[in-house]
Amino acid sequence: MALVAALAVATAVPQPDWLRLGTPGTDADAMTEALDTLGGAPSVLVGFDPDLGTYAEVRPTVRALLGELLERQAALTFVSLTAEGRALAIAELDRLERLATDAEAPGDLGFVAGAEAALVDLAESVSGQYDAIVVVGGNDLGPRSWVEQVVPRIDDVPLLAVTPVILLPEVRPYLANGQIDAGLVTPRDGAAYRAAVDPGGTAALSEGHEPSTLAVLVGMLAAIAVLGYALGDRVTTLTATRPRDAG
């Protein structure tokens, strides 16, 4: 009960400035610049393959990005190469249909079986049809696969990415060498992007509120305390039951 009360209070009180995630000078600026270079009404392929375990982390950023693309009159086409990604894509497509009433309905290539091998066929079939590719990645299939299998087969098409922070070591080298043109890979990047984006007529597509960083901090400290208590209790038990040396 104490933890629930603490989380409720942390969620309700104003967030201190030192806990704000979104700060200037992050990859959020690069994402905005990449979108600006696309011009008006771009055709965008959305490789939608997040996983259930980490999608909650990136969902607000994904929805903000989709909203901005629709605000720019982008024609979106979804495709998934994992079962989890397809399930989440269906939910997001349904949400877009309900909320983006003034926008063009996104296209849907559905689920393509074969993972990375399927990307090769997909790249050849969509070559020349899109102005940009947005990859929403997860643990099973992320931007690395698109860089390796698709980028060499589709020339001069910007590749943008949104992934959970667990993929940061995998994605960062591709951002550094330019194979991924822009990426939102950390909670700070996502928060900074969401703070800067102007949703305009597609504001309904964005999350209703930002996650409480203070509540997240309280939850983390509580988890550390519980783990520390469990570890201490385990050590005490092992020490008490250890046979004493004869002597």
Describe this structure in words.
The protein is α/β, with parallel strands linked by helices. The protein folds into 2 domains: about 25-210, Rossmann fold (3-Layer(aba) Sandwich); about 210-240. About 50% of the residues lie in helices and about 10% in strands. The protein is built from 9 helices and 6 strands. It has a 6-stranded parallel β-sheet, with helices on both faces. Strand 5, helix 7 (about 170-175) and strand 6 form a beta-alpha-beta unit. Helix 1 (about 1-10) packs antiparallel against helix 9 (about 215-240) and helix 3 (about 55-70) runs parallel beside helix 8. The protein is globular.
The best one-word shape is globular
Cα(first) to Cα(last) distance is 49 Å
Sheet with most strands: 6 strands, parallel
What's the CATH architecture of the largest domain? 3-Layer(aba) Sandwich
Structural class based on helices, strands and sheet pairing: alpha/beta
N-to-C SSE series?
Answer: HHEHEHEHEHEHEHH
CATH topology of the largest domain: Rossmann fold
Residues in helix, %: 40-55%
Quantity of strands, as a count:
6
The parts where pLDDT drops under 50 for at least 5 residues are none
**Total discrete domains:** 2
Radius of gyration: 22 Å
What's the average pLDDT?
A: 82
Strand order of the largest sheet: 3-2-1-4-5-6
Number of helices: 9
The first-level CATH class of the largest domain is given as Alpha Beta
Strand content: 5-15%
